[in-house]
Amino acid sequence: MGNVTNAPAPTTLADLRAAGHVHRTVKAEIRDNLLARLAAGEPAFPGIVGFDETVLPEVERALLAGHDLVLLGERGQGKTRLIRTISGLLDEWTPYVEGCEINDHPYAPVCVRCVRLVDFEGDATRIAWRHRSDRYGEKLATPDTSVGDLIGDVDPIKVAEGRTLGDPETVHYGLVPRTNRGIFSINELPDLAERIQVALLNVLEERDIQVRGYRLRLPLDLLLVASANPEDYTNRGRIITPLKDRFGAEVRTHYPLRLEDELALIRQEAVLGWPGSDFAAPVIPDHLLEIVARFTRLVRDSPQVDQRSGVSARFAVAGAETVAASAVRRAAVTGESQAVARVCDLPAVVPASRGKVEFEAAEEGRELEVLAHLLRKATADTFRARLAGVDLTGLQARFDEGATVETGDLVPAADLLERLGTVPGLAAILRRLGVEEESPGLAAAALEFALEGLHLNRRLSKDALPGRTIYGG
Question: Under CATH, what is the fold of the domain 13-252?
């Protein structure tokens, strides 16, 4: 959330009181900072795409209500990304008792050590400052997660040092208390064993923790956020009902509802260049990104795909990165000065993305065929959306007398343009595709897209061979 400022000056409890510091709970911090952003018209959750009118208002209401919440959605819907942005609503710096394992506020210490320390040293108690980036904790729920991992357990080293087993200071705190006065996230909550879920009941309702047989009560100050798959988050799934009841809000996430959101997500998340590389970042024309986005949405809606598993947003991101890599490979092999992606780079997406999709059992062995068909449909849909009404007779006339043109993922743009010759109407094609500065690479990308569109509309023939594509009349 912007540049990190220096920590405030106070170093003792007396300095903190003199500076007029006010102690607020985590949920009060988040509420106040969220209201300030909403009033100022600033984005409360920067980098989150496609949730503005659906998910984010629900999350904002939950945070304003002071509720712990669970995000329900299929894989790759941005649940973890959204949870991590909530930490940006914390105060940038907060004081804690220096050396405290659970970040006690000096005005209200809760662990035995800090209570004794503040009672003994008073205003001379040393304090330190914690940045909000350090106040977020996260745990991926796995079957081997233990109560000790999350809550805590007896520390045998402390016992060996001479403390008695009944001394609360022999406890080694788990991840949850170590995130005290912050935000703790549990990803895939239903994957926790039921006995571990039971250990979270007190954290969510009574706001304290219990470790073995100790008479230990630590009133924790934290926001607990979890993510889960809707299929598992039911009474018939792997979640215990009392734990569900303790979450104040359930928020359903979703995949991008609009094509524009899918494109915005690809542009934001895909790594299409490599800083420090000898090669300049490849150029991915907008119409190719649109094909990848439409392809993703078609796969997601396909009856041949397991809808319970979903198709992650990472599918589209990886597809765009594969197209970019294919263009860079061509530039490296052929010596092109500029790597520009073309339609011939799209087939590489099919085998690369197969592992990201769960198909229905009836489609076993046909996975590549299904994906290739959907990719062709995405290309045809994009062609109609982008070049409908454009006069392509000048390009098609090139093939009316039986001529052919060969292209492929290792054919340089200059060679393709030379084989096509002068194409009447090229300027109109480039204009409709949003190309402002013409270059050989962009011109070749536009013409190859037009050729593929003519083929998909049965106005050109096409022979697809390994590494080569031949268009003809």
Answer: Rossmann fold (3.40.50)
